[in-house]
Each structure stands twice: as C-alpha cells, then as structure tokens.
Amino acid sequence: IDGFVDLILDDEDYHLMPTLLKGILSGVLIPDLGPQPAAIGVAVYESAQTNSTHRSGLWTIPMPGEDCLGGHAMTVVGYFDKAHPDNPLGKSYFLVRNSWGLNYAFENPLGYPGHALIPEGFFKRHDCLHSGILSVAEVSPMKGLTGTMAALWEKTRKLIH
The Peptidase C1A papain C-terminal domain covers which part of the protein (predicted)? Predict the structure, then answer.
C-alpha cells in the first residue's frame, strides 16, 4: 500500500457512490488489495439521532426539510443486498462501522452492534454525503480498472495531483 487516495465526487457523480463502495468492498476496484473497507464522511440528519436509530443502527433517507446536524466520519465495511436470504429487511444496506462503541446499535437487526445499517439510496444523494470524499487505500500503479470506474479514477487523480 502506497497510502490513501480520496475519490472526490462532483454533484453529477454522486449516483456512482454505491457502485464505488461495492467495488471497494468486493475488491473489484483495487484488485491488487482485494476487499477493503472505505472511509467516508456522511451527513447526520435528525432521524439518525433518534432513540430507535441509536438502538438498532438503522438509518433512513432524510425526509424533505429534515435538518442536517453536521457530519461524521465512518467506515463502510460491508453490504447486504435486499435479495440476499440473510437480509430480512427488504432493502439493500451498507454496514458502516461507527466510532460510538458497542452501546450504539446494540439491537442491530443483523447482529452487528456498533455498526449502522445505512440504506443504499442514502449514498446516492449529494446532500447525504459530507464533502463527497471517499478514501480508499492506493496501490501503485492502479491496475484492472475499466469503463466508468477507470474514467472516474482518472478524473479524481487529476483533481488531487
């Protein structure tokens, strides 16, 4: 590993965030490293601060007019597809490690105390991502990227170098 690189998304690229996250988590985005977690900044809305959310870790997509209380850095560590038989929730969720300890999400419905379950749709909205930066480990040179991923990677590298 040569360090970390931030994938900086423009407003028109936010819809790609779930695809990028799945690529990182599965190892497709950075084949030399294999599956990796991803650091991300998220916007924290009022609905993320309820007692129910604190107990379960289940986040929702914010409602129109809901106040954003600030941002929070978290680490995306997994993904549960809505079609997977071990996912009884009926929606696709990213499993996100929180720094608030095991007392957060102690009743997590998928059995991951200390982790939030954030709906896939949350990550498609620019107003839900705090600063639009996704940090991933970087190996040099990046190999195996094609199509949209390769174009986004090159666009990002030009912005940061």
Answer: 40-104
How many domains is the chain built from? 1
Which SS3 state, helix, strand or coil, does residue 147 take?
Answer: helix
pLDDT, tens digit (0-9, with 9 covering 90-100), for 60-99: 999 999 998 988 888 888 888 999 888 889 999 999 988 8
* Segment 35-46, tens digit of pLDDT: 778 888 888 889
Q: C-alpha angle 68/71/75, rounded to 5°?
A: 130
For the chain, the residue count is 161
Residues facing residue 45 across a β-bridge:
68
Scanning the structure block, which residue is given the tokens 């985005």? 29
Its domain, for residue 112, covers: 3-160
Q: Which residues pair with 72 in a beta bridge?
A: 42
Structure tokens of 23? 């690529």
The answer to whether the beta carbons of residues 141 and 30 sit under 8 Å apart is no
Predicted TM-score (pTM) of this structure? 0.75
Reduced to 3 states (helix: H, G, I; strand: E, B; else coil), residue 64 is: coil
Comparing C-alpha atoms, which of 49, 42, 101 is closest to residue 75?
A: 42
